[in-house]
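Page 42, continued from yesterday. The earlier attempt failed because a stray header line got pasted into the input along with the sequence. Redoing it now with the clean sequence only.
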Amino acid sequence: MLADFTDRKPNEATAVPAHDRRAGTIALWSWAFVLLALVPVTLAAEIKWTDLSSKNGALPGPGESTQQTGNITVDLDKDGIQDFVISFRFKAPALVWYRRAAKGWDRYVIEPQFLTVEAGGAVHDIDGDGDLDVVFGGDWQSDEVWWWENPCPNFDPNVAWKRHLIKKGGKKQHHDQVFGDFKNTGKPQLVFWNQGARSLFIADIPANPRHTEPWPFAPVFSGEAGERGDQSGGFKYAEGAAAADIDGDGVVDLLAGNYWFKYLGDGKFKPVKVGIIGGRIGAGKFIESAKLLQIVIAPGDGSGPLRWYECVGDPLNEADWKGHDLLDRDMIHGHTLDVGDVDGDGHLDIFAAEMAKWTEKRADSDNPKAQAWIFYGDGKGNFRKTVLAVGHGFHEGKLADLDGDGDLDILNKPYTWEAPRVDVWLNNGTGPRKHAGTGASFKGPLGLQLYSLRHHFAKNVPLTLEHVRTFGFVEVEGGSYGYPAEQFVKMLDAGGLKLIGMFADYAKLRDDVNGVIAGARALGAQYVVCGWIPHDKGRFNEKNARDAIAVFNHAGERLKANGLRFAYHLHGFEFQPFKDGTLFDLIALETKPEFVAFELDVFWAVHGGADPVKLLAKYGGRFELMHVKDLRKGATGNLTGGAPDADSVAVGQGQVNWPAVLKAARRAGVKHYFIEDESVDAIDQIGPSLRYLERVKF
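This time it went through. Structure tokens are written below.
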């Protein structure tokens, strides 16, 4: 259903500039701030938002509770798409998970019991098993904080997740949690508010969290943190928690209330006040030329200004945090704040929204003209204000790519307004499925070399293909792992997977190219790839190279005549010196480009002493395929074409200069990229590789 709000002004646009502005100084609550002039800026193309709601059956209903508290977006099943979890009080179930399906979302119950869950929530791989677990805290009626153990991949909509205790006893109410390595130990900690104690606490994750209840924790801060409440005098408690490197020292800092916290060592933190009011809090580079991040704060459960802050001097000096208003009025119960590049222009935007109803026993809205805004940033501290909706009750709204098409959508779960209800606002609808691992710079297409999961395929082929699908891959490379081609293709089709390249043995290419052609056709492959030239280990020579040249030219010609493309996969041993270059130069020179392409395995190129950037520049379009694979820092190479599996690490964690390589690959016109990870822990490293490729810039 397309949203149609009669009070909405889709063309309303104003800018909130940070530089070259008309300014006046106004005293407000005994604090001076700069009121920014509103001037027009160039408008970006307007986004068409489609509001899908459980109210009209577009999503499954959340449950029966009329009080919906927390809301987090998270990829729980490792399919590369952000799902979401909603928490409740008043009626069971306490937690439900909306899992993205082929069409829409399926509802799974995480916690079927009745718990009085508070707003907030956080995720982390608490038990170290490679999937994300979920944390929520109890409300004003509860002295507990819990975590739920993710059963991935064994999900059942009707089977509860195992719940564990983090805190039991002491004061009540735990509104907001966040994970981060705030103490710079190399392992994240959990920070949570305990409003009843008017304190922030920090807890190290126990060595055996499944069998440690409750966790030890220690105070970070006690006292006021910008809580103001609303006109009724209620809701006066601190809230908000986030993690970001605020002072640029490479250590993640804690943000909460109206403070950021500098870790001093020995368990002690220095609170640095940023704004006069606390609430929802976040950070980002709104001024891209600035050395440090900026901070944005909304009033949360209270009312007050929506303001972003830039540091004009020392981030540890409260006086050096300069505030800029995004609105010319106070937000009313501004319990939604998030930061992201909504319009895909490469600059961070700010999403903020008000609640429409917070009084549980009231039949009508407390704030019938509640507004939701998107402030589109230009990277220079200027923002263009747009109104997303009027009269719609937002609470804990989030930005996330909820349909996997590569742009940021909006999730809303009202607190009591029209509850039970959940809405997903799709950014220009749902486009083609985004390839896994692609982002602002790296566009792929990126697939997976199935050899990465060879140990899993040896145990269960169908289940392993399901793992491949849940990572978000569409393209794959490899073989059929003992299955008849027709059956294997059906399995690929069922998972939305397509085999781009089939690997073929050198001897079969030489002696039975017709058999290779038949096998490739049966699998629907586009490429036939050879990954090894027989030779004495470490002694690859000119004869080996010339024999291969003849085999490759002949096989490549036959494959081309049958609608297939041949490629040779470099393995590092080809960089044996030869005349003024290497034996690979000889292969590249004497194989015919119309019959023979190459697959650049970045790991093996570096291991063999070659520079992949120079190879891509020299041979340009010959490299049609690439294995995106990183070599462990400190690992030394040789010309054997062999290395320990442990030398294969997650992309971005090794010694390869990926921005340079990927930029050169784009210029060379590489057509298909594949993650290949030879580590025995590949299934745990693929996710971090994807996240790196999504964020890398070049």
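Notes: The mean pLDDT is 90.
Reminder to self: strip header lines before submitting.
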